[in-house]
């Protein structure tokens, strides 16, 4: 129950970050960034595009991370989709791009770290980042940054160079925040396995003469 509450809190923090980015007219990386780009092009609500774009990544998650992680991730994605839908009812406002890039990046990085530490993700590159950390001990912040950079660069023709550079700043901040918590993420996601190994201490039984 405690983990679920922390995942919900993480989703809420990420929601604030996405709203900040959206009202700064810049994008972020991953499936969230792709979804924001689609909303700029089509005006389709972010909640719908975000949910649909994440569907293919669940196949990889089931095969490599297991059903429990996948279902928890699907739940987190659904919750985030519902939370971000609130943005449709907010009054129109704008945030300076530089402020939005840093503030939005900090919020999304904090929210993602909290979600990662409690056995879930927000789909897309998040799943791959956690898989590579678990399998090869790679920095999840760096993996996220590489994929996010690809998404942002491919979105520059939609948002322009200035907004694109601010978007790169945003994903840089996100990666730095996640990298700061990488040891906590690793420790909390591998803790159960360590406990199982230490469950039964060896008992020395002396041999009879």
From TrEMBL:
Main site of residence?
Answer: membrane
Checking InterPro entries in the record gives: UPF0750_membrane, YitT
Which positions are tagged coiled coil? none
- Quote the subcellular location field of this record: Cell membrane
GO CC terms of this entry: plasma membrane
Report the transmembrane regions from the record: 40-60, 67-86, 98-131
What membrane topology does this protein have? Multi-pass membrane protein
User: What does the UniProt keyword field contain?
Assistant: Cell membrane, Membrane, Transmembrane, Transmembrane helix
Quote the PANTHER family the UniProt record gives: UPF0750 MEMBRANE PROTEIN YITT, UPF0750 MEMBRANE PROTEIN YITT-RELATED
Q: Any idea what this protein is called? A: YitT family protein
Recorded source organism is: Bacillus mesophilus
What does the record give as the organism's lineage?
Bacteria, Bacillati, Bacillota, Bacilli, Bacillales
């Amino acid at each position: 129950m405690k983990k679920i509450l922390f995942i919900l809190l993480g989703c809420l923090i990420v929601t604030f970050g996405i709203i900040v980015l959206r009202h700064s007219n810049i994008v972020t990386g991953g499936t969230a960034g792709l979804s924001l780009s689609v909303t700029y092009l089509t005006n389709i609500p972010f909640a719908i595009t975000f949910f649909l774009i994440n569907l293919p990544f669940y196949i990889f998650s089931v095969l490599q991370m297991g059903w429990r992680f996948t279902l928890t991730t699907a739940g987190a994605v659904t919750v985030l989709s519902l939370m971000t839908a609130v943005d449709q009812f907010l009054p129109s406002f704008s945030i300076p791009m530089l402020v939005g890039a840093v503030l939005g990046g900090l919020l999304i990085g904090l929210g993602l770290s909290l979600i990662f530490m409690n056995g879930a993700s927000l789909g897309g590159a998040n799943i791959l980042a956690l898989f590579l950390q678990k399998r090869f001990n790679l920095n999840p912040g760096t993996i996220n940054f590489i994929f996010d950079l690809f998404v942002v660069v491919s979105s520059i023709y939609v948002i322009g160079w200035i907004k694109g550079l601010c978007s790169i700043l945003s994903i840089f901040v996100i990666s730095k925040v996640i990298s700061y918590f990488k040891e906590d993420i690793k420790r909390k996601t591998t803790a159960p396995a360590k406990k199982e190994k230490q469950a039964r201490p060896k008992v020395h039984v002396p041999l009879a003469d």
